[in-house]
Automatic annotation (TrEMBL):
Transmembrane segments: none annotated. Residues 21-48 form the C2H2-type domain. InterPro entries: VerF-like, XnlR_reg_dom, Znf_C2H2_type. Its main location: nucleus. GO terms for cellular component: chromatin; nucleus. This is C2H2-type domain-containing protein. GO terms for molecular function: DNA-binding transcription factor activity, RNA polymerase II-specific; RNA polymerase II cis-regulatory region sequence-specific DNA binding; zinc ion binding. One of its GO terms (biological process) is DNA-templated transcription. The keyword Nucleus applies. Keywords: Metal-binding, Nucleus, Repeat, Zinc, Zinc-finger. Pfam families: Fungal_trans. It comes from Cladophialophora psammophila CBS 110553.
């Protein structure tokens, strides 16, 4: 755009069509540099170009018609551009009922002829016309995607959302404002496309904005806005979600105290049986935990509420997952089997996400463990392929493997049994190992952990690493298509070795942000082979973000 703007003549010259710089061939130009370019390109140095002095003293040429002027100008400037839109008209042919982007077109790389070489960002007019015709021809298929994309709002769904939000206006903050339909969809898209990969517990293929609690939508939109660097918008959405969540909890407590709450006539319990409350609280705690010191007390206080809700929801599973042979089932049976699997998988992922989040609080802020390993009686999450399947047919093709119980898999690590799992399962298991190391350090009362216990932990960590290497989804690339959970899990592995080897208590100074106190507390650490190993792990851990920034600075800044 800067090149185009510099190529535009001044206002006076453009209005009068004056062309004072003329060539020997009879063509005249508005600027001297255009004349030089014309001589270099058109005459190809076959004729003697006039000297600069001759050009400066040449009499101005006469006015040319609009058609001649168009042919005179170079490739960087065309007066016809001022009569066109800077983007193809198809970009502005937006149906409010449709989602912002089409998945199919969004994921495919642009064609080689989308933009001409050495040109501005203006697409070729022929391509723009073809794109416009393509949009018209496929408008029906594009509209049908509103039932697939989880962030798409139909007009009735958005109207219902606004009415429900306004019904809580008495408890909303003073500067509250219902987000526009476009802003809400845009921020939800940012959450599902980017943020959800770090802790995937919402099933996007079956997610529906019309059937989801408004506080959950607002909390997810707040994280999406934060990912888009819209800090003020995300803060407002978070405040609204927290206020509505607290008011709903207060109303339910009143109904419970008066004995009016029954499973038969209360619509909230029919809607996912309280699982949405846990999911909303997870999103609120994530936002409050890492956005700044001001919201951190809210995150720590909501952590206790989350652990209570998880226990009320029963951190266990009664049904054992079984293999399903889709070849022996009809379409209806396949659909039913897929829906049942999605319901169970989303539930266990939500409960394990709560466990992971509270474990991160224990790691970062030295809070006591609020959910213990022995309380977890659910199966580990499946791989991403069946989880991301968009329908029953794709789910059956993915062939989801038999899953393992969390406690059995954790014990297998201490037994030295190596087995491949999903990246999410590896992530959960390393949190379980970190909790046991933390409890062992607390029980040691400032002394070193017993050598036998250290050896057992080293065996478990080595087995976990071997299992991680066998996992198809594992990757150390922060930009891997397999997701960031594999890389995040290795960071926790290094932290586990550091805390096991250095005998250092969790850093309480993180809560005060006072690094000097942390340095003074760790100044008397005695040198030993285990301390050397902890230092090496710390150095390797620090090298990961450094190398990522050095190799992909633009992507790191975006992340």
């Amino acid at each position: 755009m800067q090149l185009l703007w510099e190529a535009v003549p001044t206002a006076g010259t453009f209005d009068t069509r004056e062309t004072p710089f003329a060539c020997q061939c009879g063509q005249a130009f508005t600027r001297k540099d255009l004349l030089s370019r014309h001589i270099r390109l058109s005459h190809d140095q076959r004729t003697d170009a006039p000297s600069a002095d001759e050009e400066d003293h040449r009499e101005p040429g006469g006015l040319h018609t609009g058609e001649t002027a168009v042919n005179d100008l170079d490739l960087l400037f065309d007066p016809e551009l001022f009569t066109q839109d800077m983007l193809p008209p198809s970009v502005f042919e937006f149906d409010a009922d449709c989602p912002f982007t089409d998945d199919q077109t969004h994921l495919q790389p642009p064609g080689s002829n989308d933009f001409p070489r050495f040109s501005s960002r203006l697409p070729d007019l022929g391509d723009a016309e073809r794109a416009r015709n393509s949009d018209v021809d496929h408008s029906g298929a594009f509209a049908d995607l509103t039932g697939i994309l989880p962030w798409s709002f139909s007009e009735p769904a958005y109207e219902g959302f606004c009415l429900e939000v306004e019904s809580y206006s008495a408890v909303l903050p003073g500067n509250w404002q219902v987000p526009s339909r476009n802003a809400l969809s845009r921020n939800l898209e940012s959450y599902f496309r980017c943020f959800q990969e770090n802790l995937p517990f919402l099933h996007s293929a079956t997610f529906s904005v019309a059937k989801t609690d408004i506080e959950l939508l607002l909390a997810a939109a707040a994280l999406g806005a934060l990912n888009r660097f819209e800090a003020s918008c995300s803060c407002c959405l978070y405040s609204m979600a927290k206020a509505i969540f607290a008011e709903k909890a207060h109303r339910q407590d009143l109904e419970l105290s008066t004995g009016l709450l029954t499973r038969r006539n209360h619509p909230m319990l029919e809607r996912r049986d309280g699982l949405g409350k846990i999911q909303t609280l997870i999103l609120l705690i994530i936002y409050a935990s890492w956005t700044g010191e001001g919201a951190l007390p809210d995150a720590l206080s909501m952590g206790g509420q989350l652990s209570m809700l998880v226990r009320q929801h029963q951190f266990s599973e009664s049904d054992v997952p079984t293999d399903v042979d889709g070849r022996l089932m009809d379409a209806a049976a396949k659909e039913q089997a897929w829906c049942e699997w999605v319901s169970s998988e989303e539930r266990r992922r939500t409960l394990l996400a709560a466990f992971v989040l509270l474990s991160l609080h224990n790691i970062a802020y030295d809070t006591p463990p609020q959910l213990f390993n022995h309380e977890i009686c659910v199966f580990l999450p499946s791989c991403m392929e069946p989880w991301k399947a968009t329908d029953a047919a794709h789910w059956h093709l993915s062939n989801p493997p038999v899953q393992r119980l969390f406690r059995q898999a954790l014990q297998s690590l201490f037994d030295g049994v190596v087995f491949p799992l999903s990246s999410f399962a590896d992530y959960v298991l390393i949190h379980g190992l970190l909790q046991q190391i933390s409890l062992a350090n607390r029980n040691a009362m400032g002394k070193s952990i017993q050598p036998d216990a250290v050896k057992a932990f080293e065996t478990a960590l080595h087995t976990w690493q071997s299992s991680w290497e066998l996992t198809h989804e594992s990757s150390l690339d922060p930009l891997s298509e397999k997701g960031p959970l594999g890389l995040n899990a290795t960071a926790l592995l290094r932290l586990a070795y550091i805390r096991l080897s250095s005998n250092s208590a969790p850093c309480r100074a993180l809560l005060s942000r006072d690094i000097s106190n942390l340095v003074l507390e760790e100044a008397h650490t005695e040198r030993s082979p285990r301390v050397d190993r902890a230092i090496l792990h710390a150095a390797h851990a620090l090298s990961i973000p450094y190398r990522a920034f050095a190799e992909q600075p633009r992507m790191c800044l975006i992340a």
